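Lay summary

Proteins are chains of building blocks that fold into shapes. Our project writes down both the chain and a compact code for its shape. Here are two examples, one after the other.
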Amino acid sequence: MKWLALALLLAPEAAEAADCRDTSFEGASYTVCEVGADEDLRLFHSGPDGAYGSFRNVDLALAAEGKALGFAMNAGMYHRDLSPVGLYVEDGVERSAIVTSDGPGNFGLLPNGVFCIGETFRVIESRAFKKAKTACRHATQSGPMLVIKGKLHPKLLPGSDSRYVRNGVGVSEDGSRAVFVISNEAVNFHAFARFFRDGLGLPDALYFDGNISRLYAPSLGRHDGGFPMGPIVGTVVAKG
């Protein structure tokens, strides 16, 4: 398997990795990676040669600084040219503006939201984020919201037959933990959201994407490959 071979190449470089584990909820399999606010979590999109497009390219860029990826996941929707859909902030610089209007597709299924990395982590509904003028060191917008202050997004249907491998992020109430999840099998939105709320006890959660969802978790020997991606979120660790 190609992703396993790549994982074996990359894994020795990482001095440590996020706390990743496989688990199950209501009969479905998930992989969960938890990151603390004291860890170096960043967003990555592009370098001098354009969009990174892959976990490997991000890891290679970090290697030039004597660092490596400890964990990574695709982190939001993107256009055909890999540019972010909606708000994207990297190292305090806004590279793409926030979008608060409704529209087609999952992104436009309001309320959508923003994952904000600052002194703590936050998942905030997009219009509230814009109104509050929230400052983030890194931020990515996606949609729909999955859990909003302990309640499921009102438009998620329990019996929906729209089933995909999905990924997203939830945050603890105090913002000290960001919990990244990818389903290991096709699930609908309602089941995915319930896992964040009822399985993990997280009051706010945001959907990143589906079908193209990917994870880099060297502690599990996992490196998902595929077509080039847009925004990527990951921890930065010392290169071993």
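And here is the second example, written the same way.
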Amino acid sequence: MRGADVVIAVTTGADALAAGAESLPHLAPGTLYADLSTAAPEDKRRLADLLRPAGAEFVDGAIMAPIPLRGLATPILAAGDHADRFAAFATAHGMNVTPIGGAPGDAAARKLLRSVLVKGLSALVIESQRAADAAGLGEWFWHHLVETVTDADERFVVRLLRGAAQHGTRRVHEMEAATRMLASLGVPHTMTLATTTTLAATERTGPPPLPGTDRPTAG
């Protein structure tokens, strides 16, 4: 990254600080460093402080939807003093970045609030479908689940299960960050902690299979 005007860091949240530390010796004053990891707000602020001695311009970025669905057009929020600069650069290259101003951690907070909802839904789908399979009602419950969660699109429910299988480690780290954020806010986080536990267990055992042998969960 020596000589780069813009650095976009897309690591797991657990690796964001290490990536920033390894980047530090190579960043010139004025280099725009946009961290798009799903790290806790406090880690984004620590990262901004870490890079400040190099004169780098830090941006807290948050990817707000699964990349495979929209590719380069996936919505991204950008926070911090240099969010506008990153948004202008990213838009010129076909990305969909919305600057929200504020301070480092503000975009991450929005992403993690979304994570509490979406990953929590994923954990509930896993637990309830597993219980239905054990009760011999897997096929019935699957159709009931799809009808309850979404009126028209079964693909959303399938993504909840397959996403847990394909992105287990990253999602566990993400929910650990969300748990720390809720704890720091003094908000009870029983369901968020339970989601983390369920996703971690699912990483080891795999999610329940989808009804029908032609639709493996991990496919």
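What can we say about the second shape? The mean pLDDT is 88.
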